Amino acid sequence: MDTFPDPPSPGSAVGGVSESPVAPPLPGVASSAAESAEPAELQTLLAAVHQARPKDDLSPISTAYHFAAKYHEGQLRASGEPYMSHPTAVAGILAAMRMDVVSIETGLLHDVVEDTLVTVADVQKAFGEDVARCVDGVTKLSKIDFLSAEDRQAESYRKMLLAMVNDIRVIIVKLADRLHNMRTLDSLSPERQTKIAKETLEIYAPIAHRLGMGKVRGELEDLAFRYLDPDAWAEISHSIDSQRTANEEYLERMRRTVEEELRKEGIPARVESRVKRAYSVYQKLRKQKISLDQVYDLMGLRIITDSVKNCYGALGIIHNEWRPVPGRIKDFIAIPRPNLYQSLHTSVVGPEGRHFEIQIRTDEMHRIAEEGIAAHWKYKEGRRGVQDDQRVAWLRQLVEWQQEMRDPGEFMSTLKVDLYPEEVYCFTPKGRVIILPSGSSPIDFAYAVHSEVGNTCTGAKINGRIVPLRSTLRNGDVVDILTTTGHEPSKDWLSIVKTSRAKNKIKHIINQNERVRAIEIGQKYLEKEARRLGVSLSRVKADDLEAVAAEYGLGKTEDLYAALGYGKFSARQVLQKALPEQSQPEPAPVAPPPQPRAAGTDLEDSIKVRGVDDVMVYRAKCCNPIKGEAIVGYVTRGKGIAVHSRSCTNVTNLMYDSERRIDVEWARNTTDSYPVRIVVHTDDRPGLLAQLTAILSDENSNVRSLEARTVMDERNDSALIEMTVDVRDKKQLEKLCGAMRRVSGVRDVERLANQ
Ligand code: MN
Questions:
Q1: pLDDT of residue 122
Q2: Per the count of CB atoms within 10 A, which of 43, 86, 371, 435 is most buried?
Q3: Distance between CA 446 and CA 34 in Å, rounded?
Q4: Which among 330, 352, 343, 331 is positioned nearest to 303, based on CA atoms?
Q5: Is 342 helix (H, G, I), strand (E, B) or coil?
Q6: What's the confidence (pLDDT) of residue 422?
Q7: What is the pLDDT of residue 455?
């Protein structure tokens, strides 16, 4: 019962379309004598389309039919039928889905480019851009061999998606094509049967499922199952049939009871019996490792009513009548499945103690469950009456897009589908698809386009709007990267980008640039130091410098300059090693000033750099490490060594160049103390502040600043006390915080990382 009618009968779906077996006079069809001469299959098709879309001009369909018939003339299907029977049947399936005229035309023309001399350009000339694009898409899909040895799964899916995003109608026509091919698979060789059935099960049925097209999916699965495992299929189908016969009376009794009870409560509803599909029974047997007679929900009922309220009302009535099986109530109305499926499911213990599944949904939900994405074509007709709040987010978004579109025809062609949640599919303005991990930024996009685009990227537009480079890309975004010649990547980008490609490229450029600068700085240091010592650098031979470099374990003189520039060694050390013994300068009578200090950094005596003396060291402001904490050094460009706390979040980002990481440790005996910012969250109670300051003075801790303010929150007044205090080391800080936490009224004490 969950199959498309074949031959299609357009009135089969819910929604109140009345049956009319006779083709009415059709608008747009030439009213000449030729009309009566139209082939019967075309007349049937036109009648079906007219019924589903009474306002549409159908003349393009007739034209497409005759065009295709002319070029397929003389060709036969494997079954021996005229070839044209296939595209006509595909168009019929699309008409039954109530697809638009462009889709029907595409259905009729879908094989002309592949199997005749017609080109896409010819199709465009005769039928316009939309049809040409769709025919082109279907043709391209047909050429993809999803089951070839290497080109399987992910990559193929992606290609498929690629076509899909181009115009969703391509996929729907392809699914209709596949459905008809599956229905007529008998005429092919067993090898072809297996291959096509496998592809159907692995590629097309899941896509139909993802698009919410339950009906197509079900039929594709059952047909494929039949060819892939004929024995299992026969056994299960037979069993379903016999159970249906055996349970007909039981089912009918249940149905009548449900109808009766609903009527009593004034809930308008249609109650249908429902039989599980062969393939889904098969899956259940395999998954749960049970035998056929243990499948209790082979049969069930489906209640279709008019509103969400009545869905829940009906559920109440059912549960009042029969005891629900615990844990089997599923509310897909409140939480729809990702493919938009909505329904209430419940299992009850029916008469004779038998378990029995009942599904409850509205007409609207039923149509979406059966037709999925194809159901949305109807909105274009301007039919309203769908409660907005029932639709899940992306469906609402579709409508928004539709309103934003200048051309409503663009609506479906820009529909994006989230088949791969871990990936995001974006486009260049020219329509090239860029696949990125989800969470990617415009910078990732830029690097995926080209490294130069990435390096010179200064801004981005998403769907025509300027956005920050930090933005997260979403499926279907059209990303336009703005570049400026000569611009270079920033270090901050490393914390934004998701792809390793972008990360590596950025690191590479930054390292390269910093090295160039470090070499320059290193050379200048050396010259300056030489001047200061009164020696001429020209006396230092290149060989000597190279020897010094080698002594430090560096390959080239350039590396030595770079190390100098980074601040790894002092210029003085290098000069002493490089100068010939006799020309060693006398130690300066006055103690030489220390290495040039960058303004504003307070240099530390309390931190030792392992293995090197006489280097500039300062504590990084971002994490303000204090004695006792695990620390790590980072060789900066010309400013010496920045010391971070190992837990500093900047460290993970900064440490992209392991070359520049350096071991540091706290000096044993220092009496330095460090300013630390502390925030105390407290109740707003008098006297509390005095208690806190008493703790500080007990510890001999100097308070540099203190600020208390009252915070109004929901429950009661609370206070926030922020202070900067001097502490000697981690131990003392912990002691202070512990003591403050024990004061009654103190809720939390936290240390702020930055100074
Ligand atoms: Mn075909």
A1: 94
A2: 371
A3: 58
A4: 343
A5: coil
A6: 65
A7: 92
- 440 alpha carbon – ligand 1 mean position (Å): 38
Rounded Cα distance between 440 and 503, Å, is: 12
CATH 1.10.340.30 given to domain 33-228 = no
C-alpha to C-alpha distance for 394 and 321, rounded to whole angstroms: 37
68 CA → ligand 1 middle, Å:
12
The domain covering 231-374 belongs, at the CATH homologous superfamily level, to Beta Polymerase, domain 2 (3.30.460.10)
Q: What is the pLDDT of residue 377?
A: 55
What is residue 753's three-state secondary structure?
coil
Centroid of ligand 1 to alpha carbon of 2 (angstroms): 23
> Which class in CATH covers the domain with range 674-752?
alpha beta
* Ligand 1 midpoint to CA 597 (Å): 77
Phi, psi of 665 (to 5 degrees): -150, 160
Q: b/e string for 434-450 if b means 16 or more Cβ within 10 A?
A: bebebebbbbbbbbbbe
Q: How far apart are CA 734 and CA 285, in angstroms?
A: 60
Domain boundaries, the chain: 33-228, 231-374, 507-578, 604-666, 674-752
Structural tokens at position 544: 């000597």
pTM for the full predicted model: 0.50
- Residues of the chain below pLDDT 50: 1-24, 28, 30-35, 148-156, 158-160, 162-164, 378-420, 587-602
- What is the model's pLDDT at position 691? 82
Which ranges constitute the DSSP H helices of 614-707?
Answer: 649-654, 688-698
